[in-house]
Design brief:
heterodimer, A: alpha/beta, six-stranded mixed sheet, four-stranded antiparallel sheet, 10 helices, 10 strands, B: mainly alpha, 2 strands
């Protein structure tokens, strides 16, 4: 077991029900070491996205969530949101500014950085996603693959210690998907990836957690889990 | 099918395209203000103002007829000024009988109507030129420099960003309906009421989707630190050349107005 003090993410006994009474999370426990990449897989409606939204306090249930040594709670929210970069499933929701530059600059501006620093952060983040030339472009005109890369750049510009990705490869054609996997593989932060794309999991994440009906049903090395056909089938997944 | 509100802007590299958006916005507003303040029936001034608009149009390198063609769109609005033809008192020109009613068109009335029509046509030309040579993100920056409330600018910017997304969504829905609107033996079924209800349902769905999307956008904003205040960078000051252009153009407009009043 890793030392409790230096975990990147620590979730203990997390329960959450939506206002309409639908219970989405039932006692989730999950610890992630710094630099680790963990895939969260499971059928639709398993609670993956709900779990993701707890990591930066957009949703708050019963139980404790720690990011580094910060508890995800009202007084720490700003610091937590700077530490956790969240990439939403639909890039059209994430790219809300008129131009790519303004979108990538949004997070750094809210962190209170100076104009020069913001400019540097934006260019660095776009470079990491091989998208420097997109800075002056209008988001609406980009392809889904391009939007996805820009969406990731918008959080990289905040230099987060934890990167949370919701269905990063959904809707991408094989080439964009390949590019995205390569780009993600080159990034340093701790990653939590919620996905159905088990081939992406195999390539990017040494560890996998299976979430079903709001519970962590299995948590272990990706290779072991993804070769257990009975386990996968029991939770609506398919071996690749 | 891809709707885009971006068709207002025409890319180019003319002097006007390169001019700072703040200068362009200010001058456009000043032009429209001068046009509306110009006295009624000051025809020489209208000609000079038209010359001002046309020179700007030529400087934009969009082709001199481009702005004139688009400005024709504003003509129907001139109809709103029709009543002045008969409400202003003065020398009688024509009298029209409509049953028991008799409408008398007067000379000052006609003069005022033509002035209003010309003025709106001139104003629209300049507004079209502004939007055709300035991309909206730049225009939003210029509005910020003119101290428009930031919240309002943020709303405008989100509207511009998502208008196209919403229209695309509506078009996709309509296409899906079209795809299932088959007709058997040359006639289509369903009563008018039923069809109206389907359309109403589609509008409702669109509203709900928009609402849910706004929730997701808000989450994405929160995730990147949004705390209810709108923040942005200070803009760099205008260069001496830009100041010179701005001030001299403002002086020209002011001089035109003064001449207009002195003549009138």
């Amino acid at each position: 077991m890793v030392n409790q003090e230096c975990l990147a993410v620590r979730i203990q006994g997390l329960n959450f029900a939506y206002p309409d009474g639908h219970v989405a999370l039932r006692g989730v426990d999950l610890s992630v070491a710094p630099g680790e990449r963990v895939a969260i897989v499971g059928p639709n409606g398993a609670g993956k996205s709900t779990l993701m939204l707890h990591l930066n306090g957009i949703l708050r249930g019963e139980g404790t969530v720690y990011v580094g040594d910060l508890e995800v709670a009202e007084p720490n929210l700003k610091k937590v949101r700077a530490a956790v970069g969240m990439v939403f499933q639909n890039p059209d929701d994430q790219l809300f500014s008129p131009t790519v530059f303004e979108d990538v600059a949004y997070g750094p501006i809210y962190m209170g950085l100076s104009e020069v620093e913001v400019g540097q952060r934006v260019m660095q983040a776009l470079q990491q996603m091989h998208a420097e030339e997109y800075a002056p472009r209008v988001s609406h005109h980009l392809s889904i693959g391009e939007k996805k890369r820009i969406a990731i750049a918008t959080v990289l510009a905040m230099e987060p210690s934890v990167l949370v990705l919701d269905e990063p490869s959904a809707g991408l054609d094989p080439r964009s998907r390949r590019t995205l996997i390569q780009l993600l593989d080159g990034l340093a932060p701790t990653m939590l990836i919620s996905t159905h794309d088990l081939r992406l999991v195999k390539e990017l994440c040494p560890r996998t957690a299976i979430l079903d009906e709001g519970r962590v049903e299995a948590d272990g090395p990706t290779f072991t889990l993804l070769t257990d056909e009975d386990l996968l089938e029991a939770h609506g997944l398919e071996a690749v | 099918m891809h709707f885009s509100p971006f068709h207002l802007y025409r890319a180019g590299d003319s002097v006007l395209h390169g001019l700072d958006p703040r200068v362009k916005l200010l001058l456009t507003l000043a032009f429209i203000l001068s046009v509306s303040l110009a006295p009624v029936g000051a025809w020489p001034i209208y000609v000079l103002l038209l010359a001002f608009a046309l020179s700007a149009s030529v400087a934009s390198e969009l082709g001199w007829s481009f702005v004139l063609r688009r400005a024709a769109l504003a003509l129907p609005f001139v109809l709103a000024a029709l009543p002045v033809l008969v409400t202003v008192k003065g020398d009688l020109l024509v009298s029209i009988r409509l049953g028991a009613w008799s409408l008398s068109v007067t000379a000052p009335g006609l003069e005022r109507f033509l002035s209003v029509a010309l003025k709106s046509w001139l104003s629209v030309q300049m507004a079209i030129l502004l939007t055709a040579t300035t991309p909206l993100p730049d225009l939003l920056l210029a509005m910020r420099a003119l101290r428009l409330p930031r919240l309002l600018i943020a709303v405008l910017s989100l509207m511009w960003r998502y208008l196209a997304v919403l229209v695309d969504e509506a078009l996709r829905m309509m296409r899906a309906r079209e795809a299932r609107s088959a007709s058997w033996q040359g006639r289509s079924g369903g009563s008018l009421l039923w069809r109206a209800r389907v359309t109403g349902g589609m509008a409702g769905t669109l509203f709900l989707r928009g609402y849910e999307r706004s929730e997701r956008i808000y989450n994405a904003m929160l995730a990147r630190g949004y705390d209810g205040s709108i923040r942005s960078f200070p803009l760099k000051p205008l260069s001496p050349a830009e100041r010179f252009i701005l001030i001299s153009a403002l002086l020209v407009l002011l001089a035109l107005l003064l001449v207009g009043y002195l003549l009138g």
